[in-house]
């Protein structure tokens, strides 16, 4: 039994103001007259927290009492975005807070802007994790998110001479009002050392791990409030600290300064998020991060969330660990080690339990993004885990041999251990062998996993493979990001859509209602106005809100083909400056880019520089700039997305078919009433099927077509030779027109397109331009365009992450909500 809870502060303006002033005085130690904006923001955040606290404790206690089957989401990344607005929304405090603060002469909007978003992720995979924990809380599912509390999140991007410069993200510097540190629940994790054989009391030969060094994992808890359902789940992020033993030896040797310095070695583990996306860095520190957080999480679940003396043979009844890509896959040998070495299980018994506790989601199709760890590194850092992986592999391959009648080629292909170019552990294979379920993140992606990436495994275990199409949270990406549209929707169909997004269907008839469309356009215009203000204040960029907003925001990667969008811009520039097209005949557009490049990805950084240089020339041209402008605000993040997406008219989703696993930005745009120009790739396929062909601009090669061309030998230069428009665009870039006459500046980019063009930009160029011509024609009819836009909103309810969670619950987790 727990002691009765102190009740939440009173849900009224007076109650709120009292609590806020108390926080300002007693926690911030200041008074209203002297408070800085940051003081007021911190006091506000803590005030809101108080309203959620009793729900949080009750949720935790209920879960402990009921011991239901819980979901543990294991993810190296959570790209959370700002917390304040989401907490205000969940606690139903938006109006009370605005009014209460105003009565004190404070502006909620200004305090909101003081929050630095926790950017603990790179892109799609990290943002997906944040949407999923939001949906799980809102659906009252007993769930916990586990991850890493990076001291520095994704780098801050600035441009110098158009080139990307990275700066550290000091998100904790202003204070961290949303986190709760629990050093008393720290966990010890070992690394390195060696294993030794011994004979157990039962006479059985066993192996045990003698780690060479240890670190402490300190949990930091974050609230994950459900939307007005009385539930608050937990996100638990681990921070690395040095243990005492860590430096004791050096202390004893008498070097105090060295001893203190050595502590930073341990603390480096959670220091910084790796900014590589889709290109694994085989860095030792990264494997340390991965093992660190999953070892802490498993220990935590077993020791803290299960009752004392729980029979671990029944673990699969209580938990499913969802592996967010391969980053947490070392959890599999870790659970085996805990069961076999620490708990005395037999191997088979332990394997039976382990297999039933894990499910694996793959988020990529690029072969180079499939993580491998060299046997040398794995053996040095985690020697016992390597032994366990070898044994898993041995037993698995015996099974393959038996089933295939000794097909040694197949055995080699499926081995968890790759032999070339070096002996290495293939983490995706390990995950696939162990997991109860393996899923892709959109229908096409799951199909390609079955047919290509993991085809041998799908043959062996067809029932293991499933699809769960990604989703996004409607709370953050519609209700909060687009209050205008939310108001319009709620007025029309009530507010049930916020937690039941399929109800957006009820808007369909309104697509044919001229008055509704007019109001929809009004909302879009207001959102553009909001964006104009933000870009002016934040970046000093002037955007004309009267132009079509054509937006491409996502990580910079060759497969996503920002270059294809840029070639469209260059072609428009070329046609206008050559006098082939009159500015009177093209609708005015603003092309907005937002993208960070991995710091070591040279080509991606060249592309960023090229976009900025083309943009500078286009924007400075007296004629061209009347109908075409390029805006590339630096440091695209969740906060920028929240003002950019609701303002967009056109959503660019133009990856080469078969390369983008799903995309989730595509869903956010459609839900906010932008039309998509896109390839038949990832979740675009499902978006187009749902919104209808007439309301989607499809272009480009299909996946089978692209594969066939690659197979036959792709020759990009033939497209250059045969397409005069394309030739002129590339020649223009190569001529130095965008680099003050310097012909060498972007030579590597052009040369790569002509010689290799791995992602078939040139092959899709003409189809893309034709599709953009269809966009222009459609945009010329505002009524028809807004009809399509409304239909995009009405038919995109499927892309709620609540639906993704229902699919995981049914197809993968076999768990249920536990409403309060
Ligand atoms: C370090 C190596 C590394 C890092 C990140 C390899 C792979 C990744 C991720 C899997 C990349 C990623 O974020 N994938 C994206 O996941 C989204 C959510 O499922 C999808 O919508 C995107 O299509 C996919 O690119």
Automatic annotation (TrEMBL):
Chain segments annotated as coiled-coil in the UniProt record: none
Stored SUPFAM superfamilies: UDP-Glycosyltransferase/glycogen phosphorylase (SSF53756)
EC top class named in words: transferase
Catalytic activity of the protein: [(1->4)-alpha-D-glucosyl](n) + phosphate = [(1->4)-alpha-D-glucosyl](n-1) + alpha-D-glucose 1-phosphate
Keywords: Carbohydrate metabolism, Glycosyltransferase, Pyridoxal phosphate, Transferase
Record-linked CDD domains: GT35_Glycogen_Phosphorylase
Cofactor: pyridoxal 5'-phosphate
Catalytic activity, EC: 2.4.1.1
Membrane spanning stretches: none
InterPro entries tied to this protein: Glycg_phsphrylas, Glyco_trans_35, Pyridoxal_P_attach_site
Similarity-based family: Belongs to the glycogen phosphorylase family.
Described function: Phosphorylase is an important allosteric enzyme in carbohydrate metabolism. Enzymes from different sources differ in their regulatory mechanisms and in their natural substrates. However, all known phosphorylases share catalytic and structural properties.
Protein name, UniProt field: Alpha-1,4 glucan phosphorylase
Organism of provenance: Isoptericola cucumis
